[in-house]
Amino acid sequence: MKKLFVGLALATAVSALLPVQAAQVPAGVTLAKEQVFHRGIGSEPASIDPQKVEGSPGGFIVKDLFEGLVSQDADGNTIPGIAKSWNVSDDGKVYTFHLRKSSWSNGDPLTAHDFVYAFQRAVDPVTASKYAWFMQIPGIVNADAVIDGEMPPSTLGVKATDDYTFQVTLENPVPYFPKLLAHYTTFPTPKKVVEKYGDDWTRPDNIVSNGAYKLSGWVVNEKLTAKRNPFYWNNDKTVVEEVNYLPIPSATSELNRYKAGELDMTATIPLDHFKKLQKEIPKEVTITPLISTYYYSFNTKKKPFDDVRVRKALSYAINRDAITKYITGQGQKPAYSFTPSSINGFVKPDLAWEKMSQKEREKEAAKLLKQVGYSKSNPLKVELLYNTSESHKKVAIAISQMWKQALGVEVTLRNEEWKTFLDTRREGNFDVTRAGWTGDYNEASTMLSLWTSESSLNDAKWTNKEYDKLLETASSTIDEGKRGLIYEKAEQIFSSEMPAAPIYQYVTSRLVKPYVGGYPMNNPEDNVYSRDIYIIKH
Amino acid sequence: MLKFIIKRLAVAVPTLLVLITISFFLMQAAPGSPFTGERNLPPEILKNIEAKYNLDKPVWQQYFLYLGNLAKGDLGPSFKYRDYTVNDLLEQSFPVSLKIGAIAFIFTVIIGVSIGTIAALKQNTILDYIIMALAMTGVVLPSFVIAPLLVMIFSITLQWLPAGGWNEGTWEYLILPVTAMAIMYMASIARIQRSSMIEVLNSNYIRTARAKGLPWRTIILRHSLRPSLLPVVSYLGPAFVGIITGSVVVETVFGLPGIGQHFVNGALNRDYSLVLGLTIIIGSLTILFTAIVDILYAVIDPKIRYQ
Amino acid sequence: MTAISPSADKKAAVAKFAKDLEIEGRSLWADARDRFFRNRAAVISLIILAFIGILVVVGPWLSPHEFDAIDWGYMAAPPETEMSHWFGTDSLGRDLFVRTLMGGRISFMVGILGALTAVVIGTLYGATAGYAGGRVDSAMMRVLEILQSFPFMFLVILLMTMFGRSIYLIFLCIGGVSWLDMARIVRGQTISLKGREFIEAARVCGTKPSAIIVRHIVPNVLGIVVVYASLLVPSMILFESFLSFLGLGVQEPMTSWGALVNEGAQSMEVATWQLAFPVFFLVVTLFCFNYVGDGLRDALDPKDR
């Protein structure tokens, strides 16, 4: 996974020597005459406006329609996008991006001013972007104050020094800043078009974009169609002429349409069918690691879960191998640390309890629980909260059985529909709750910052000063190796305190027809750019 | 007659108002907000979003704002689909449900009435039993079993028809969803038609007609069919609304862009404005059709009017 | 969406019977009963229903498995006798035989309790309206009219998504929306009862109206109410399965036929038995309920046959 770390720790400009991603058709492959690509995206996108979009369905589309300063290759490494190179000031706070000459899909030139507009738009309270916080993560100057409405958006620390030079000033040095720029919130938006059409600017008739594709049709809940954008700077390398995005929320229906030949690539694979599909069409089943962890949080503010022994006992008694093998069974990896191993530059920590056998762990768990005073006659009672879904249900049922068998714990299951569940969890009305977290960028802090005291995502309400301090140090440590060591220490603290029990590392599993070439098998952020795809003759 | 119609429609307005009010406050009371997600939004961002949708105002003020906009025909912006207003979404999805619903409805009535009549005429023969057993199966088999079965047979195994999608409503995309939707109501209508036809055939005036030696065809088409349709007519109101709204299952299985999918997703996403908009549309439809059926009934059977 | 009320012909038959009953008195019941027992399909259905009912109650004890226990070695296993997974297991390795029967308990319960809720509300509402008469009556009937044109299914979906999905809420919801026809029928009955001597007598004695309704009117309409309720049960079961399809059914690890059928439908190409057994039970039960309902209708309204 570890490759060159673009733009990081490099005070000098990284020039355009780096490979630029585009469809790379191997010699000897005959392309299909009709280059049309049908991809399942799960559900209807919330938006396709770069500063308003949230969730992966919209993400897939926006990443095809727009291109930011940087992009990613098939393995998730940062590569130049609209910025052909960039450099950092000596104090690590000022990033200067040198843009290539490119244009919007209506032929207008794309300049640094478009990026200034997009960055300001993301934090502008009028836009009401749900991802406004994305500008707060690297600490762009004044981002907090602008979002709070105390300062006008024009005071944000971004500027265009000339038409093709874009500069961002950060409050503190954040070495992984360029990595964040592959995220859609930072993509440029055409000011003129947005101002002319208002909320309607993303309609097929109005939209102007700068990516490899341009939206040409949109029927809500059925499909979106995008056609090749002839003005895209790397248009020569694009192969697929037309992309159809199909939002099909039911995995079974999606599978049916894949089988009927209406889809070339699905968004997911239904659990029940996975094993059979792997037997019948193993070449079409793809599994990609994902920066995402499935875990159970303990309510550390509630008795008896404020006792680390109870938390540890419950965590140890989970047979993660059984879950990944029998329940999820799609190549998910058992998780003992919170950060997935697929993350760029992360050194896997050496955890003692990971090395024990499951039997030993269960014995240790029983011992711990006994110390607290629970036994078969005085069983620990746990309510397990999870949100309604077939797979969460299965995991919850399995784990409650494991707790019952290994520790005699009495478990009540409580499933709530997603939105209700989120409310309950935030209010802390739970003993143990299911949770999952997917990283926003390819760096360990996207996972570990979740557990700092002031994090709004820390539903376990766990606080640890040493942990907080470690992460603070990490965020300004420029050397990647040193940073890795700090993260490892943080993981050790996490394991000894166990505010949450990591269960498994997610994977993206989907069906991809054998005639679809260029599918990235190793992008841990699930960035599948249609511009990299080509359809083989079949 | 006119008085009856006016009276019937006068009830519609308060009914709708009550419906809007109940749904509005029900959603206010529901746990969860349209803007909660896996990541808890920082309070200042949440504040900005709420201000944009007027959610920072007191509830009663939101209510009257909504009613005011509604009077102008504006259903507000969708909370979930940020590029669309509710009016846009309904404009796109309603015709889809209407088209499938109307076609399914026509088929349902024609086929349902025909096989019901045939079964009645061939009462207690093998044909009758077969038709009625099939009809019963149609009634008891949930549509979420029928629909995927149809897909499995006709799309995956035989590869005759597409497994889903709308494609602007071209015929091959319509066949399976319409069939799935029609089966259940067709079966109900066949059963109703059969028993009412039997009743009519046993009535005195048909016996008289037969005794007079009128040909069978005339007896059935001229004298029996119309009166036997009365119970079917009373079933049509709920059936039509049911078919249009009942697209929930079929639209989910076949991935059709109609209002059924919007409703379920809307409720799950807490897309208040979208759900309210749909409730109003469906409520008006229900009210309209109950009224039409009542009026139709009054036309066919004058006794009703004087009750 | 599934309509949760019996079909129009059955409603009409019940109402008509109620009218005749009033003219001819008690012996009609006896006639109806005789006619019902002469209807072979209805009687066989009744026997099958009784059999399923007993199986659902005692069946789970016949199997060595718990309904929520996972058999790790037998995930999604087809039916076999060695491990006593007679109906196979579901995708989590839980025994399908036990789960089908447990699901049956829930489905029956939803059907019966849902019908009961409808009956209680409908009877009281109808009796009150009918007994009070005059303005109260017409006001109550107006309300009924308004309610009748409500898109109730949608309210039910709203309620279920937003306020959790306890089994009580399910039958409350289902029952709460299907009492309207019941109220109409009872009201009609009450109006005709009102003029009877025994009601007059009670009134003269100074009995409170609420007591008259509960003690004198309700017992007299009970027969017709029970018949109507029996027709409601299958529609309730079907509606519960619709809720299950939307993922709004009962809480895991509990299950219902609707939930099982829905799970089965998701995996029918991989594990046919997961769909076949629950669907068989659901369909047979609904078939039987419908035949019994038809039998009742025919028995009450003999002109049809």
UniProtKB/TrEMBL annotation, chain A:
Main location as per UniProt: other
InterPro entries tied to this protein: Peptide/Ni-bd (IPR030678), SBP_5 (IPR039424), SBP_5_dom (IPR000914)
Keywords annotated in UniProt: Signal, Transport
Domain Solute-binding protein family: 79-456
Subcellular location: Cell envelope
Signal peptide region: 1-22
Family named by the database record: Belongs to the bacterial solute-binding protein 5 family.
Name of the featured protein: Peptide ABC transporter substrate-binding protein
From TrEMBL, chain B:
Keyword check for Transmembrane: yes
Taxonomy, superkingdom: Bacteria
One matching Pfam family: BPD_transp_1_N
Membrane topology: Multi-pass membrane protein
Regions crossing the membrane: 100-121, 133-161, 173-192, 232-254, 274-300
Localization in the cell: Cell membrane
Family the entry assigns: Belongs to the binding-protein-dependent transport system permease family.
Protein name (database record): Oligopeptide ABC transporter permease OppB
Originating organism: Parendozoicomonas callyspongiae
Lineage of the organism: Bacteria, Pseudomonadati, Pseudomonadota, Gammaproteobacteria, Oceanospirillales
Gene name of the record: oppB
TrEMBL record, chain C:
ABC transmembrane type-1 domain boundaries: 104-293
Main subcellular location: membrane
Location(s), subcellular: Cell inner membrane; Cell membrane
Keyword Transmembrane attached: yes
Family of this protein: Belongs to the binding-protein-dependent transport system permease family. OppBC subfamily.
Name of the encoding gene: oppC
Keyword Heme set for record: no
Keywords: Cell inner membrane, Cell membrane, Membrane, Peptide transport, Protein transport, Transmembrane, Transmembrane helix, Transport
UniProt-recorded name of the protein: Oligopeptide transport system permease protein OppC
Transmembrane segments: 41-62, 106-127, 139-160, 166-186, 221-250, 270-293
